[in-house]
Design goal:
This is Peptidase C39-like domain-containing protein. There is one protein chain. By secondary structure, the chain is of the alpha+beta class. The chain has a single domain, classed as Cysteine proteinases (Cathepsin B, Chain A), CATH 3.90.70.10. The chain is about 30% helix and about 30% strand. Strands 1, 2, 3, 4, 5, 6, 7 and 8 form an 8-stranded antiparallel β-sheet that branches. α2 packs across α3. The radius of gyration is 16 Å and the shape is globular.
Length: about 200
């Protein structure tokens, strides 16, 4: 499905969030794999960052898997949560990731500007969502829509198998991005998290 089709689907059928009529949109071509273990969200997102901005040691994009990346980072296939900052540094040092990613801890309008600048430069962003339980989750921001009223909504890919949308792609308004939706696996109730940090890059 093309981005034009996704935009039409989101705005015309309200499959995603309801946003004002779009006047422009930007996106990065991605080919995501869902996370293969319950805590491998960092591996799914990290692999896509490498696919978009491969380093000299990454090789062909189809030759690398999440398991390869997990082995590189932690030396085993244990289903272990990892901090995104250390992961992108390891991928960079190993020559898998060809761009420097920087942690941004802004919120509100400044955060949204950082995301737009990253996408305009051809770099998907990694966002860390923190839930009220203290647990964190990693998602990828790969596009945005400029609405007729000047507001922005962001395309997010969530690699979790317990996502809210069947194809794992969300269109979130700025307000929703600040209050990220999810599900509590124990209670089955909807919960909300906040964007604790984003990692953006400038193409070299």
């Amino acid at each position: 499905m093309s981005m034009d089709d996704l935009v039409y689907d989101a705005l015309a059928t309200e499959k995603f969030s309801a946003v004002p009529l779009a006047t422009a949109h930007r996106s990065i071509a991605i080919d995501f794999d869902d996370q293969q273990c319950s805590n491998w969200c960092w591996a799914a997102v990290g692999l896509e960052l490498c696919r978009v901005n491969p380093g000299t040691s990454f090789g062909h994009r189809s030759s690398r898997s999440q398991a390869d990346l997990v082995m590189l980072v932690q030396g085993s296939l244990d289903d272990t949560p990892r901090k995104v900052g250390s992961v992108v540094s390891q991928l960079r040092n190993a020559g898998w990731l060809g761009a420097r990613y920087y942690r941004r801890s802004y919120h509100g309008d400044q955060l949204r500007k950082e995301l737009r600048d990253s996408i305009d430069a051809g770099n998907p962003a990694s966002a860390v969502i923190t839930w009220r339980t203290g647990l964190s989750h990693n998602v990828c921001v790969f596009g945005y829509i400029t609405a007729s009223d000047g507001s922005y909504s962001f395309w997010v890919y969530d690699p979790s198998a317990t996502d809210l949308k069947s194809d794992n792609r969300y269109l979130l308004s700025g307000t929703e991005f600040d209050r990220y939706p999810g599900w509590d696996a124990e209670t089955g109730r909807q919960i909300f998290g906040f964007v604790d940090a984003v990692y953006t890059a400038a193409r070299e």
